Fold this protein.
Amino acid sequence: MSGLRFDAISLFPAMFAAVAEQGITRRAREMGLWSLGLWNPRDYTEDLHRTVDDRPYGGGPGMVMMAEPLAATLAAVREAGNGGRVLAFAPGGRPLKDAWVRERALAAEPLVLVCGRYEGTDQRFLDECVDEVVSIGDFVLSGGELAALCVIDAVVRQLPGAIKELSAGDESFADGLLDAPHYTRPELWRGRGVPEVLLSGHHARIEAWRREQALCATAAARPDLIEHARAAGWLSERDERVLREAQAQGAAERSAA
């Protein structure tokens, strides 16, 4: 295997075709920028029925993934050469953030992704074998595979050579803000035009407009990011003026309504 190594422990390994065989991540894999190993815990059971789950102690709905099949699978991953950090996924985990993604891409260290299913995973396995639990949002999924796919896709696109550096640097969160809106041909679509500044060819004006749009979009949808950017010293005096003007305009519009 070459490049950044991922090994995914999953009862549904076929789901990972979404990143291994499609789009930017497929091309990056073919370039040798990353590799993926897939491991099914059922292959590391010792009973006739290949059991990986059981009823929870203390009662309650659903089933719980057993510790031993997961531990045995992880041992096989280690024997195959992946000694990297082990991640699991749950709503109560550390929120997946752009800074974390970029750190993982920069470190280029292997990762093991443990994809739970059912009601949960035996806590003893999490305590004994998992380095970090990650969350992709305040909602519940049927399993950890979709979260693992998000991690792979987000990290791989930050690897040097996966996409154009300008594209990666111009995305949402790259500078702590959401991205500005984008437009393409035709110039007029269903009576809606393209902002004139984008047709001007004046690069300084265009960049200023995009910054203003990003600030306003972030303030409206994610004010927490504005506060973080402000605390980090990323906002200029001009940025603050744009935000004040947008706030005043919004207040005027609400008053008129």
Remarks:
- Residues 89 and 134 are 5 Å apart (CA to CA).
- The chain has a mean pLDDT of 94.
- The chain has two domains: 4-165, 188-256.
- The radius of gyration is 23 Å.
